[in-house]
Amino acid sequence: MRRAFAKLGLSLAICGALAGAAAASSALQPYQMIRSLQLVQDRIANGDHAALPMQRKLLEIIDERMRNATTADFEEPRNFSALLIYAMSGGNPVTLDVALAKVDPASAGKPLADALRAYLGGNFKDAGAALAAIDAEALGTHAPFVALVKGTVLSNEDPDAALANLDVARLLAPGTLVEEAALRRSLLIAVSASKPDIFARVSSAYVRRFLRSPYASQFAEAFVSGLAAMHASLDAGQMAEILAWMTPEQAETIALRMSRQAAIANDPVMIAFAERLAAGEAATDPRALLYSSLGGVATPQVADTLTTLQSIDRSRLSEGDRALLDAATDIAQTVVDRPEIPQAAPAIPAAIDPETTSDTDSYITSTRAKLDAIDRLLEGSN
Question: How many Cα neighbours within 13 Å face the side chain of 274?
């Protein structure tokens, strides 16, 4: 509690300082303001969610200062450097254009500035071409930012080069928002390029360093996507170790989302993988039991599946999941009540000969409708 009040007090103090800075922004040099921005962003990387509004306010103040800067301001190398860092820290592309109109075209940093204009404008092709001739590691304080941008613009065209640049970015700026962003972007590339080894390495690094970041929810989205896409080539034990670094609530959420993805895919290998991820309370969570049981309604173990479904505490389920439970229980009960119908096939409709009897034909039609209902409920459940 004392720590929380201390953070609140510091936040209020900084907000007050920002208000004063806004009133006297013309008296501050751009490089001084950028230093403040970097301090705030480092706080964000270390889990200070209260710093997010500070970052937005600072960017607004810096935006105004950059627009009103003079040619003489940008003749100071530190201020021109600040402009480039501002552009690479979420700056306004229009403001960058206004400011660059006041910069000497012969400036040594102009090629980088032009590359950043293309980047902020969404023109990754031109930005990549311009950045290709720039050695990020030779740029001093700009190096980690440039490496981060290069990694971003190359992510689709050349995943390996993108990952190499993102590695440079995080190694040159450890513990900062640059490293945090580099890890998140590396994870996205590992998923899209199907690189399980990199996925495991990057995920492990992120949960150990930045799990308190306000952007951790974006990591979680990519992490679940990667688990679902690469489950066949990932080590479930290693992934469970990564979950162990999370809080119990975070780990349970990831395990449940993976169980739901497995249920949607109706993939036995993926379901088994998801079950290995579940641990502690997640293993007995009614949602986990529900999702992991769905594949069992069309197996020889359907009677056991029905028992599990009937044991689930429906009061702990959402409305959508209660409907899903009812549909799964209904179809499992139907199969159990028809012992003369073969149950060994992987899918109920394929297990029956539709021309055997009209009664069986009616059974199949009903069962297919129930399976379709389960699919629709899964796609729409929360």
Answer: 35
Residue 137 lies in a domain: no
Rounded CA-CA distance 211/47 in Å is 8
pTM here is 0.73
Asked if residue 261 belongs to a domain, the reply is no
**What is the pLDDT confidence band of residue 130, given thresholds at 50, 70 and 90?**
confident
Overall number of domains in the chain = 1
Helix (H) or strand (E) holding 278: none
Does residue 204 sit within a domain?
A: no
Q: What is the pLDDT of residues 334-375, one digit of tens each?
A: 878 775 544 443 343 333 333 333 444 454 455 555 556 656
> Is residue 317 included in any domain, yes or no?
yes
Report DSSP letters for 75-121, one per residue.
Answer: HSHHHHHHHHHHHTTT--HHHHHHHHTTS-TT-TTHHHHHHHHHHHT
Which helix (H) or strand (E) segment is 315 a member of? none
Label residue 33 by pLDDT band (50, 70, 90).
very high
- Residue ranges making up the domain that contains 364: 285-382
Cα 11 to chain centroid distance, Å, stands at: 27
